[in-house]
Amino acid sequence: MADITLIEAVNLALHYEMQHDPNVVILGEDIGENGGVFRATLGLKQTFGCKRVIDTPLAESLIAGVTVGMASQGLRPIAEFQFQGFIFPAMEHLVCHAARLRNRTRGRLTCPAVFRAPFGGGIHAPEHHSESIEAMFAHIPGLKVVIPSSPQRAYGLLLAAIRSNDPILFFEPKRIYRTVKSHVENNGLALPLEQCFTLRKGTDITLVTWGACVVESLQAAETLSHHGIELEVIDLASIKPIDMATITASLEKTGRLLVVHEAAKTCGVGAEIITRVAESAMCLLKAPPKRLTGFDTIMPYYRNEDYFMIQHDDIVNAARELMEGWQ
Amino acid sequence: MNIQTQPMHRYIDHRGNLIAPLPEWANDTLLQQFYRDMVLVRHYDKKAIALQRTGKLGTYPSHLGAEAIGIAIGSAMQSTDVLAPYYRDMPALWARGISMLQNLQYWGGDELGSSFPSISPDIPHNDDMPFCVPISTQCTHAVGIAAAMKIKGLHRVTVATCGDGATSKGDFLESLNCAGVWNIPLVFVINNNQWAISVPLHLQCHAEHLVDKAKGAGIKGIMVDGNDIVAMYDALLQSLDQARKGKGATLIEAVSYRLCDHTTADDASRYREDEEVKQAWQFDPIVRLKTYLINQNLWSEDEESQWLDICHQRINQAVEQYLALTVQAPESAFDYLYEKADPDLHYQRDALINKAMRMEKQNSGGNNG
Lengths: 327, 369
Description:
The complex is a heterodimer of chains A (327) and B (369).
Chain A: E1 4-5, H1 6-20, E2 24-28, H2 44-48, E3 53-55, H3 60-72, E4 76-80, H4 91-98, H5 101-104, E5 114-119, H6 134-138, E6 144-146, H7 151-163, E7 168-173, E8 181-182, E9 197-200, E10 205-209, H8 213-226, E11 231-235, E12 238-240, H9 244-254, E13 257-264, H10 269-280, E14 290-294, H11 305-308, H12 312-324
Parallel strand pairs in A: 2-3, 2-4, 4-5, 5-7, 6-7, 10-11, 10-13, 13-14
Antiparallel strand pairs in A: 1-8, 6-12, 9-11
Chain B: H1 28-53, H2 67-76, E1 82-84, H3 90-95, H4 100-107, H5 137-152, E2 158-163, H6 170-182, E3 186-192, E4 195-196, E5 199-200, H7 213-217, E6 220-225, H8 229-244, E7 250-255, H9 274-281, H10 285-295, H11 301-323, H12 332-335, H13 343-368
């Protein structure tokens, strides 16, 4: 198979799992005939019919609640929110019900559901279309949060998410929906959840990132390599739970930690990673850890958007500061 | 306010007089069973409040005045149907086979109170949802459950219940709307008890009747006297049958009155006139059916006395069992959160166990000292 885009990989995984598990249904706005606003669900309704590919009324709270109800009865629903910024009406169901059903009923009822949403900025979208709020969901006991950063991981992680018996928020970095391509074997093999992916080996700095920032991070690593600084680039992928073992093992080699995320700084996932390192692996560090994040502002409209996106140079500079200031 | 002047589905008026011929299903045995169930859950309710007042139960929402609605719902549903209840629905759960002990366990602060056992050999796994405390969210879950039944080709109906306050929320309206569009096997029952904590119905909704909201969703609506269990059961049988035959969803507005405080943490006398409550007692669903049964020679004070003895025995037995229950281990909060806990949760679980052991030791040391 030729290389495919991240969004095509999402579509491929949905096709595969619907073909192999009759309990999988998908629902959301515009997902049927239209194939979703980004075409993630293209062709599914034609293949699996309107009982399993369900266009819902335009009501996000309803979509989430219906998903919880379906999941409680043994289906494996996959809900699509058109944009992460539209997920707020659904929060009550995600926090109060999806996250709690197993615990509340002591395992009698569970919520094996996936809630998909494109997220992040950088595509000149209108207001409310550029949020990166993964930390909000990671904060909720009972939820898991997964973010792929390549077609191959989108395919494998989505399969794993659908097969998981826990509710999962699956956030897709829409900025790289069509800009990254790779080979994906359509073999139905899921990737492990709850595990980081080390994308580049290095000896000087452990760079932990996820989503679209993976692209700039790898570019920055190449640039820095020319200047003698070798980054180990880790794609966090599972935002909750966090695989600290992989991060700590990397720090044993590098002794320096740089976390890069597009989301706002305060109470972001970067703060969590750095705190955990401080709590249990402080002695591994040769320098104070550093984070490069979005600003604590509302994302501006797109004329100023680029200033707020993390650029390749930002990462290069942050890595140099981390090396130079504490050698 | 005189809720009994509204035109609505009703067979027995508040004086116990028949105002329409009883439906065919209404045999003597069933009406007597309804009465016995309503009396039992009312006395259970009194006991639960007493337990709360003496520190043996957590905050508890009384169902005083809602007995006819709940018993009718639980009795009319088939064991294979699915209930998505709100927090005031103990009578419905009781009539579906969920024990008083289970209810005490839930309000007594134990999650095992929602791990309902099977209620029928037909359905080994109990699929009923637990009590829903957030307002009206259970309505959207019910849409999902009913849609799941349709997708699976099962002839099982879902019943969602809520109070009048819930009808103001988007989830309620979104659910009705979707139930209409998808033509799913679903029955909504609003317990219109006139008060959403301290907010009266006229400040909740400007529509003439809550059931009018069914029109906007294109589903059938029935306004029923919620204090007349015959009318309630009849409306439910019709609605469940329609749903089971693939003819879509129904909204039932059960017009009643909350004869109690909102919960044991509430004091309704702060916002409600005594006179209004006194008036509402005239329409008590239990007195109404009792009067009717006595007039028909289907019940007597002797039978009443015997039944009360049985009720108290059963309630006391449930309370004794409840008070003797072993508290779940503190670490159980970790054991059901996910299918499998991650390493950090294991660490937190161990930390909690250590803390609990330390506290136990301190407590036992304090007692000894």
